Amino acid sequence: MSKSAELHDLLADGEELTIVCHNNPDPDCLASALALGRIAAHAGIDERRILYSGDISHQQNRAFVNLLELDLQQFDPESVGERAADSLVAFVDHSVPGVNNEVPEDVPVDVVIDHHPAEGIDARFADHREEVGATATILTEYVHELDVAFDQTLATGLLFAIRRETLGFLRGVTGDEYDAARILHEFADPDMLRRLSTPAVSGATVDAIADAVDNRVVRGSVLISHVGRTNERDALPQAADYLATLEGVETAIVFGIVDDEIELSARSTDSRVHVGNVLRDIFEDVGSAGGHREMAGGQIPLGVFADLTADGTDAELVGIVARVVTNRLVSGLKLADESGASGGSSASDTSGAPAESGTDGA
Predict the structure, then answer these.
(1) Distance CA 196, CA 193 (A)
(2) pTM of the full predicted structure?
(3) Shortest CA distance to 137 belongs to which of 163, 119, 111?
(4) Which residues of the chain register pLDDT less than 70?
(5) How many structural domains are present in the chain?
(6) Residues 83, 109: contact at Cβ < 8 Å?
(7) pLDDT at position 358, please?
(8) Strands across the sheet with 222-229, in order?
(9) Measured between alpha carbons, how far is residue 94 from residues 180, 235, 331 in Å?
(10) 9: three-class secondary structure by DSSP
(11) Residue 144: which domain range?
(12) Residue 28 · residue 177 · CB < 8 Å
């Protein structure tokens, strides 16, 4: 039995489906949720909802939600807690409770569809394909195989998600993405695709990217920078994308303080570096990080950093965070310092603060 048929059979036994997006969902997650909802409707499930945690702040993500008129609801832990046997919970574009989502770790999950590296996936149905470039690629395959109708909204959403996740078919793309795009092309709305690709950028986002440009430190082919404190969470991946295009730079890592966490975003074209593994290894004792070979992210609770400057200024906190995180990256990546010596100091060596600040799900 194909994976699509297996999924359809499982959904056909359900009466209600709750689709949980990861924190701060992107187009790949949102389009996949939309597609899974359409498959569930095809299987006879009338009660469907899409939940998300965090913010939809990136201008492209906001445009995506608005133009496709997605019906989203804020996540409530009670909505995935005790439930009837015919009420199903699905994850798209993430896979493990408590990791990049607000779902309690003991909640059973019925459906997982994802392409991100992960361990410990436990679900009645799981399709976990790290080798493909986008979760939307998998959902396109399902919709096509199950003869679910591709209307303009669904096709446009899936095609844009694949394009965005693969950076215009240039990053982590496989033949499956091209096959999916061929299927979706005849149904998608070209005008809507153009509007999604060129949304307005806020002044705060531009300011954050400018700060990343000003604060950059380059060691060989690696660039490390920070944006200080910002409310524009999605400026970090945009800054990383931009800085990764600088001449001579193969790996760009940008971080900043967002609310009560340190957020990181990384990009790499260096075939010797798996940037997801790099971030995970460097920060697994203080937070949560990981991702793909070319694209990764992470979150670190402020924890002890905030305590160190309880009586000080926010500028002092930013300075400590910038120093500690930069030196952890320099040490973990074994970068040469300005004198030519290999970086080897720990975060606590630099700031006097212990490296541990607790752990948190990403």
Answers:
(1) 5
(2) 0.73
(3) 163
(4) 304, 306-312, 337-362
(5) 2
(6) no
(7) 30
(8) 217-219, 222-229, 251-258, 261-268, 295-301, 288-291
(9) 20, 22, 30
(10) helix
(11) 3-197
(12) no
